[in-house]
Amino acid sequence: MYCALYDAGRCRSCQWLETPYPAQLARKQSYLETLLAPFDVAEWRQPQASHQQGFRNKAKMVVSGSVEKPLLGIMHRDGSAVDLCDCPLYPASFAPVFAGLKPFIARAGLTPYNVARRRGELKYILLTESRHSGDMMLRFVLRSKLKLAQLTAALPWLRQQLPQLKVISVNIQPVHMAILEGEEEIFLSDEQALAERLNEVPLWIRPGSFFQTNPAVAADLYASARDWIADLPVNAMWDLFCGVGGFGLHCATPDMSLTGIEISREAIICARRSAQELGLDKVSFAALDSAAFAGEKLQAPDLVLVNPPRRGIGAELCRWLEDNAPRWILYSSCQAESLAQDLARLARYKISRAQLFDMFPHSSHFEVLVLLTHSNDN
Predict the structure, then answer these.
(1) What is the pTM assigned to this prediction?
(2) So where's the catalytic machinery, residue-wise (predicted)?
(3) How far is residue 310 from each of residues 42, 179, 188, 326, 341, measured CA to CA in Å?
(4) For the segment 175-213, what is each residue's pLDDT rounded down to a tens digit?
(5) What CATH number has the domain spanning 4-52+214-377?
(6) End-to-end alpha-carbon separation of the chain, Å?
């Protein structure tokens, strides 16, 4: 993949860009195999590759520059800004949105926030696209509500220019820190969720709910989880750290009891909406802490699926799983090192199958899916 920004030394986010993509994938697979060597993986599936460019479905842009000439991109530690509107990781459909937003910022008088001076209003632009429909969700992250009326008054012009913007909101983030968003969300559109569809499974994305950045590889990941579980006699399962329900909704059948747990209330609203569309009567979702939810239960289901953040599931949940012994654990990890730490705590389980999913090309990051089988079933 060619990137003029990288060649000019202005952005080095893609640290592996000079390495040919097949070599990147081989390097990640080799590292993962070394990391999991102590756990004796019974079966390795071939790593799942990604498109090398245009694969991202979201952009998180720091707004800098001036109200007349805003920059959308990143801010280096020395305070210098880089406009990333031409980043090749974004699909071509993002370009007209970025182009339309720059004059809108001036039209609405949204002064970019100056970190050094602690002045200005517009901190970030957050854009998410549905690969299913091409519709988009746009969020303005503001320091306060000072410019909210001006933004709202100018919005009809933007919507006329960019009718693909179906969900539009303002997030208020008043803290002078590198925090992406605050707790208050103000919707400026009738629609409050973006419709997505992966493998014919309806999914919804609301502001503040996590959704994978690489939808094509995410679809492969969810499909693999569904296929691996289909071979097992599972009557009941939990989907912990479930997000908007991508894993659980792919794996659930009309006869299966599924409980999805996620701390984010916004994500749970999305998951419930999808389950209702699919007509899954034995599926329920709740906004709770996953470890606390499990800790209050006296019995495990046949299978526990976990998709934790980078820190992993942790010692407390590992102890509960060891003590209550579900027959299978399906673990999706975005941080292989924390996965290895958790596997060391799950001494009664063996890795029946493992596969790497390259969700983040041109970087050292990747996703991995492992199927763990309790020793009593080996």
Answers:
(1) 0.95
(2) 334
(3) 25, 18, 33, 23, 12
(4) 988 789 999 999 999 999 999 999 999 999 999 899 999
(5) 3.40.50.150
(6) 44
